[in-house]
Amino acid sequence: MTGNEPPPVERFPALRRIGRVIGFVEIAFGALTLLGIAILVLTQAAQRYLPFEGFAWTGEIARFSLVWLTFAVIGVLVTTRGHIALEIADALPKPALVRIVQVLSLVIVAAVGVGLTVEAANLVATQGIVKSPVLRIPMSLVYIPVLLGAISTAVRALISAIDIALHGPILRDDESTDAESTNAEAASA
Predict the structure, then answer these.
(1) What is the pLDDT of residue 28?
(2) Which residues contact 148 (CB under 8 A, 6 or more apart)?
């Protein structure tokens, strides 16, 4: 960008602010679950060497936390292009073709998110009678973070697909890619 060009206009500023807040909440929840997993797994390992019987609930909460972590950050990954993507398509010479591929892939992700949302809502509605083995937590409560993550995935993918369809594809930043490859080559030497 040269000094004569105006700054890029931010598209949908209110929507972006809301997305940032929701993303912050999802990342914070993901960080807490990751920290919880680390503490619980270390507690399990330490219990093997203690003279008293360990806590059975540590393994159960660690397993639930792994599921919660996975679904909590899926929406953020879709928005930040941190998910599995067809980056080879981003190098195509025609931006219109890149736009089609990106929109199609995000629509597929949104459709999968809708399917996950339907199934997670079904689990929340029907699994209240089933209890977890150790803590006896109703499984419908365990599936609530999964439902919220699936909703986030579907909504974020759909918003991104609409944004790309209206405003063009998100192209890779070749300068940062070149700088990263140069740094990687220098580190390996």
Answers:
(1) 93
(2) 71, 72
The two structure tokens encoding residue 45: 């390992």
Do residues 114 and 155 touch, judged by C-beta distance below 8 A? Answer: no
Alpha-carbon distance of 89 to 69, in angstroms, equals 29
The CB density around residue 181, as the number of other CB atoms within 10 Å, is 10
| Lookup result for tokens 């974020």 | 156
Signed CA dihedral, 50, 56, 57, 60: sign only:
positive
Return the sign of the alpha-carbon dihedral for residues 88, 91, 93, 99. Answer: positive
Q: What is the pLDDT of residues 125-175, one digit of tens each?
A: 998 898 988 889 999 999 999 999 999 999 988 988 888 888 877 766 554
pLDDT tens string 34-73:
999 999 999 988 888 888 777 888 888 999 999 999 998 8
- Report how far residue 137's alpha carbon sits from residue 139's, in angstroms, rounded to the nearest whole number: 6
Cβ(140)–Cβ(124) under 8 Å? Answer: yes
CA distance 45 to 26: 28
The answer to pTM > 0.90 is no
- DSSP-derived secondary structure for 102-118: HHHHHHHHHHHHHHHHH
The helix or strand, by DSSP H or E, that contains position 6, with its residue range, turns out to be none
Using an 8 Å Cβ cutoff, are 139 and 66 in contact?
Answer: no
